[in-house]
Automatic annotation (TrEMBL), chain A:
Keyword Kinase: no
Domain Transketolase-like pyrimidine-binding: 1-163
Gene3D superfamilies, per the entry: 3.40.50.920, 3.40.50.970
Keywords of this entry: Thiamine pyrophosphate
Tree of life domain: Bacteria
Cofactor: thiamine diphosphate
Upper taxonomic lineage: Bacteria, Pseudomonadati, Pseudomonadota, Alphaproteobacteria, Hyphomicrobiales
Protein name listed in UniProt: Transketolase
Family: Belongs to the transketolase family.
TrEMBL record, chain B:
InterPro entries reported in the protein's UniProt record: THDP-binding, Transketolase_N
Pfam families named among the record's database cross-references: Transketolase_N
Protein name per UniProt: Transketolase
Superkingdom field: Bacteria
Residues spanning the signal sequence: none
Annotated organism of origin: Oceaniradius stylonematis
Stretches that traverse the bilayer: none
Amino acid sequence: MRDAFIAKLTDLARNDPRVVLITGDLGFGVLTKFAEDLPSQYVNAGVAEQNMTAIAAGMAMSGWKAYTYSIANFTTLRCLEQLRNDVCYHDAPVTVVSVGGGFSYGQLGMSHFATEDLAILRAIPNMRVVAPSETWETEDLTAELAAAPGPTYLRLDKGQGGVGRRDGEVARLGKARLVRDGSDVTLISIGAILKECIAAADELAQKGVQARVLSVSSLKPFDADAVLSAARDTGGIVTVEEHTVLGGLGGTVAETLLEGGVHPGFFRRIGLTDEYPTVVGDQAYLRTVYGMDAAAIAATVRSAL
Amino acid sequence: MTLRNDPSADPVILAHRIRKHALEMTSRGKSSHIGSVLSMAEILAVLYARILNVDPGAPDDPERDRVILSKGHGGAGIYAVLAERGFFETEKLKDHYQNGSIFSGHVSHKGVPGVDLSTGSLGHGLGVATGMALAAKRAHQDWRAFVVMSDGECDEGSVWEAAMFAGHHRLSNLIAVIDYNKIQSLAPVAETLALEPFADKWRAFGWTVHEVDGHDTAALEGALKTLPDDENRPTVVIAHTTKGKGVSFMENTVLWHYRTAQGDELEAARAELAACDPEVRDA
């Protein structure tokens, strides 16, 4: 996803001299070509994310389309007030790119886990919150977001949802993707943890449970219609996110359903409960440890049915 | 019309009008920070009467100089100088701090022509101005980015992140003016977090430093009118000022960071300002 984003951004930057990529001294090997080919559109702000974000805001207010780049918490929580006051209040065209959604950097420990970012960024007015599940979605959304510049959070995952592009399929801002249809339950995920939902749906199918799978790449704007339809058409809703269950995808879906007046047959949120992950390991391992892998999702569905 | 080419503007008179407006605005709104506005009146006056390439008729001109009041709590001052210089009617200043107003206590750009950045949380202005200066350099444009800062906000680490970046990138089109009134929210700066040796800190970060009497309009103009004076360095003008300048009982006090003038105090402050009104005195 990260490499696909950089490749797409490089294309965009070649065609638009006002695209500028500002890194917080991260991206070893990944940003090299961009920096070499487009030096006047590249800035390494150093290990100083507050200033990186302020620089991006200042450039964006002066005719540039700025992209900040670092590991998830550093482009977001470290400089949250610069995002809130300088970028979003001024509606400045800054795209905040975080690499390493969820447990992508699972061996690096709590400091590198991005597990509150979606909820926090979603609360900021004017901020679009986007978390693709696939490489091809990343390419589509990067292009679409660039065509309509504005404050944006783009969360890139190390993993992959693993569902290839179907003929004619295009990822769109504000549109959920119907990955698989079913009537007994709807599994709704955000980002690459879609892979676990697919596997859970396979497992449930073997037991005769037909699960609809919805992939949300755009938490804000949010595809309320897809979620309301899922609640009407299927037996219940389970949200799955590599993130706290507080205020992210699960919270957004719950708000949407209640305000839409649609009561699902059952509703469960899978994700981190209100806790710090202290165990380390790779992304798949941590999904298992923290109860958000395919087996855990399937078990949640079976217990709810 | 760019304001710096307006021979009719007198920085001394403009500074006095800023003070009078700010006193009335903060009194009417029962708001704080009159001391912080009084200390920077000459800084704003010289910038808007002599230095800035800005045009009230075209406040969004992409080639204009950018101006950020990073000490956003001095909002009454920037609103006053913008009104006096024709960005909007002075009558609108009466809305400051009132219900439904767009003139918030801390600076907001929404609906206010001439404001380039909303501020109020300290330590933001220098970084954004640095980004603006970098934008101009990279686009080969000649405009400059000015930022007026407080001394207390230099406690913020983000100020020094920006200072290091601007020095490293040789942003000669970036000019910071620090209203060094020596008093912050609860106590004197020297007792809170000492800034001295202040000028040396900026020099060490790669900046050219000017130190001037921040109430001497000729000295301020002298320091600011030829900038940038080094093609390889950003510039900071450390303006030594007096908090509460112009009203004797407000000068050099911590109290008047937050206190608002009402009743007898308001009358006394009005009388002191009136007694040194350059438009009356020189008439």
